[in-house]
Amino acid sequence: MDMNQYLEVFIEESREHLQNVNDQLMRFEKNTDDLGYVNEIFRSAHTLKGMSATMGFDDLAQLTHKMENLLDAVRNHQLDVHTEVLDALFESVDALEIMVQSISEGGDGQLDVKLLVQKLQRIVAEEPVAQHAASSIEYDELVQTLLSQTADQGFNAFEITVQLERTCLLKAARAYMVFDVLEQAGDVIKSAPTVQDIEQEKFESSFIVILVTNESHEKLQASIMEVSEVESVKIAEVPVKKKTEMEELVSPEVAAAIQEVTVSAPSKSPVEEKTQPSNNKTIRVNIDRLDSLMNLFEELVIDRGRLEQISKELNNSELDETVERMSRISGDLQTIILNMRMVPVETVFNRFPRMVRQLSKDLGKQIELQIVGADTELDRTVIDEIGDPLVHLLRNAVDHGIEMPQARLENGKNEKGTIRLKAYHSGNHVFIDLEDDGAGINREKVLQKALDRGIIDGKTAETLADKQVYELIFASGFSTAEQISDVSGRGVGLDVVKNTIESLGGSVTIDSNEGYGSRFSIQLPLTLSIISALLVQMSEERYALPLSSIIETAIVQPKEVMHVHGQKVIDFRGAIIPLIDLKELFTVPNSVQGDHYSVVIVKKGEKTAGLIVDSFIGQQEIVLKSLGHYLPGVFAISGATILGDGQVALIIDCNALIK
User: Fold this and answer.
1) In sequence order, which residues have a C-beta less than 8 Å from that of residue 282 and are 6 or more positions away?
2) Which of 77, 274, 438, 621 is least enclosed by beta carbons within 10 angstroms?
3) Catalytic annotation present for 350
C-alpha cells in the first residue's frame, strides 16, 4: 500500500494530537488531582502511536509507547506526579514535535530518543507505588463510544472515586447504598472492581465508577457523602469526544456491540437511547487551493469594477440591473471566500503557554499566562506572519517586564506575575493586547540607552513625551538588558515586531506605568487581499489610500496653512499636524496647485498627518497586487491595483509617510 497519499492527513492530525497533549499537560500541571486530563493525554498519545506505527515512523511510535506506560502508571495511581514526571512528558512532546516537523519537511522523522526513552522507563520503574493507591478503571473503545453518544445528548460523564472508612465492616452493603444513589442520578457505565467483585467484597476500601448523568458535580458529592461510613468522594469530569469524532476510530466489532446495546436496552436510559447518526460536515482543504480560489476571485473583482464603470457610461437600465445583481452576488461570494480563509488566533496562541512555562523556569520566575479571545479570527496570511512578533513581545514581557518573586514581594505584589494576551475584533480590525503587571518601563533608563547608542540626541530627548520615549525601544539594536542571555540582551527583537506589523498594514502602540506594568497593543487588518480604499487624483495619475488608515477628508484653504521649521502644518481639531504634498513626494508631472487643498487625514497609531491630493474620486474595493521582484522596496508604495477601466493605481503605504 502506498502510504504517501495519507501523509498530509497524518501530519495534520499528528499536530492536532500533539497540541492537545500540550494543552492537557498544562492544565494537569495546575491540577494534578484531576486524572481526566491524564486520560485525555493518554488517548491522544495512543492514537498518535497507532498512526505512527502504521505509517512506519518507528521512533515516533516507540516514544509514544513509553509515554503511554508512564501515563498508565499515573492514572492507575502507581506513580506520584512530581516535577520530573511532568518535565519528562513535556520533553517527550518536544521531541515528537521535532519528528513531525521533520516529516512535514520531507524528512524521515528519525530522532535519537534512546536517552529520553530510558528516562521514561527509569521514572516508571523507580517510583514507588503510592500508599493511597485505589482501583484503576480502563476506558476501552466500547466505554469511550458510549460516552461519546451521551455527550451528543448533553449529559455529563464523571469518574467518581469513593473511599469508605477503613473501619467499615459491611463494605458491600455500603457500596450497594452508594450504587443506589448513583443509579437514581443517572447510569453507571462501568466500575472498578466489577459490580460482581464489589458484591462479594473483593476490594480494599475504595472503588471507582463511571457515571453518566445530568446532575451537577456538587449535588452528586453531597448525595454520596450522606451514605454512612463514606470517608471521601472524589469526582472528576471525563473529557469526552463527540460521536462524530469517535466514529472514525471505532472498530467494526465495537460498533456492532454498541448497536446491540442500543437496540436491546430500555429507551429511558440516556446511555442506551438510540441516537440519529450525524454526518461529519467538515473537510480538510489545502491552503494552496484557497489561495488559488482567492486569486481567481480577485480577477472577478477587477472585472466587476470594469462592468460597473461600463454600465454607468452606457446608462442602460437592463445592464444596470444585471450588473447590480452581479455585484450583490459577488459581494456575498467575497464574504464566503474571506470567511473560508479566516483562522482563529488560537493556532498561534496555543504554543505560548509552554514557552512561558519554560522561560519562567529558566529565569527563576513565577508567571501565569492568561489568554482571552483565542477564538478571534484573522486571515490565514496575517496569522502566518504574527507568530514571531508575538514571541518577541512575550519574551520581552517575561524577561524585562515581570520581576523576580522576591522583588515583587518587596513591592507589595503577588510573587506570581501575570501576563494577559487578549484578542478581539473592532470594526475591520483585530486588536491583540499583551499586558503584564510587572515593573513597567523606566523612562530615564530608556532615554539614557537611546542617547548612549546615538538613536537620539540630547536636544530631542528633552522634547519627547512619555509615549515617544517608550517607542524608542522599537529602534534597531536597542536593549536595556544589563547582560546578554539566551532570552534577551542582543538588541534584536522589538524592531522586528514593529517592522513586521507595519508591513501587514497594522500598527503597534505602548502604554506603561512604571512599577505597575506595560501594555503593547497591536492593530491588524482582518485581511490583506481585498481592501476598501479611497481613490484620489493627482494630475493625470490615480492612487489608492486604504480606508483603515484614514480618519477623514477635508478641504483646506491656503490661508489656513502655516509653516513651522520649513514644514507645512494645519490646525486640525485643536492639534497641529504636518501636511505632506503627495505630488511633490512622488514627483507627479504637470502638477498645478489649485485655489484650495484637498487633504486626506491619516493616522498611524497615535500620530496623524494630512496628505495633499488634487481631488477625491471615491471609495472602492480594490485587489492588492504586489509590485513583484522588479520593483522591490519602493518608498511609501505597498502595491498596486487594477481599476475598472484597466488602468493601474498605486496603493500608498500611509505608515511609511508618518515618522
Assistant:
1) none
2) 274
3) no
